[in-house]
What we know:
- The protein is mostly helical.
- It folds into two domains: 1-162, Alpha Horseshoe (Leucine-rich Repeat Variant); 172-246, Serine Threonine Protein Phosphatase 5, Tetratricopeptide repeat, CATH 1.25.40.
- Helices cover 61% and strands 0% of the residues.
- It is built from 13 helices and no strands.
- It has helices spanning 24-32, 36-45, 57-71, 79-88, 92-104, 114-121, 127-144, 146-156, 162-170, 181-190, 197-211, 215-224, 229-241.
Amino acid sequence: MQFAITGPIDWIEFSETTMHNYLYPLQQLFEQNANPDNAGPMKKYLRDQFDFLGLKSPQRRLLFRQFVAEHGLPQIADLEMILLDLWQLSPREYQYTGLDLLHRLRKQIGPETINLLERLIVSKSWWDTVDALASHAVGGLLARQPPLKEATISRWRHSDNFWLRRTTLLFQLRYKEATDEALLFSLIRDNLGSDEFFINKAIGWALREYSKVNGQAVRQFVAQTALMPLSEREALKWMKNKGLVV
């Protein structure tokens, strides 16, 4: 796969093209198992941002495993088209299935995939897909590709799209001892003073996860940095629960 995107992407306009053949039986399977009784509460949970078929996560994943057992996984060359088609479909379950598909193929994706991931982050953006993309697909890819990490984070960290900035804050969530502390703290400083809830929540979440590895560094950073109350509260939550701070 080759991508020609060189700058930040703020939106996607999908063309009305025929869906990839791989997805037709999946769509049929999902629609046959749709549950309108679940769909309403699921839509409400995400503040009416998206429509749902009413497939809760355990059932959706079971259906997807059933589908893969019968149809296999797609060729990596078809991944871009399939994911964009899944993002085009209205029910949110299709975007979740795209995330599951990315996870299944995570060892096969290379640096050229970063522009596709960016397109997914900035389209139909909400915490449920962005956070999964950040901590799994993006985080895993950048861990394997240090030069790509530097180039990508340099481009995203000052983006006008706050979901890309949230991704820079969260891509190291699973790194533990491998977390680049200096980079994490620098990215947080980039976003100080933001009034965006999803940015301030991400700052606290990233610090909370890192506190499980280096609590002293997080305590010192919080004490010396003018964090928003939400960020500070979230940053210290785990250590307070453990009795490590008062």
